[in-house]
Write a sequence for this structure.
């Protein structure tokens, strides 16, 4: 009886460890966009897009590739004409799962 309980506990621990290690594969990419905030106004037209991405193979901003450093940080600056714009940041992991973050910004 004691052997069965020990075997059950060992299998339970192995299953928990397997679930812990499989979490990054199951969860997909994650993107945290620090700037710009949704609805932010840029009076000079210069927009800085920066943030952190984890479990990401490819990152694109409105379809254009964005470089990620070894810590997952990314940053770029570009100029927008007057008016509104919707920025679309898409992260893809090595298994094809994606996450998209959108921000609406304005240049008066």
């Amino acid at each position: 009886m004691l052997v069965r309980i020990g075997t059950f506990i060992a299998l339970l621990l192995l299953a928990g460890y397997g679930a812990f290690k499989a979490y990054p594969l199951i969860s997909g990419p994650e993107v945290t966009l620090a700037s710009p905030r949704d609805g932010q106004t840029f009076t000079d037209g210069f927009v800085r897009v920066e943030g952190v991405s984890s479990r990401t193979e490819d990152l694109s901003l409105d379809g254009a590739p964005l470089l990620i450093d070894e810590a997952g940080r990314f940053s770029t600056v570009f100029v927008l004409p007057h008016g509104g714009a919707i920025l679309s940041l898409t992260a893809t992991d090595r298994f094809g799962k994606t996450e998209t973050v959108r921000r609406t910004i304005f240049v008066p």
Q: What stands out?
A: The mean pLDDT is 88. The CA atoms of residues 45 and 81 lie 6 Å apart. The two ends are 76 Å apart (CA to CA).
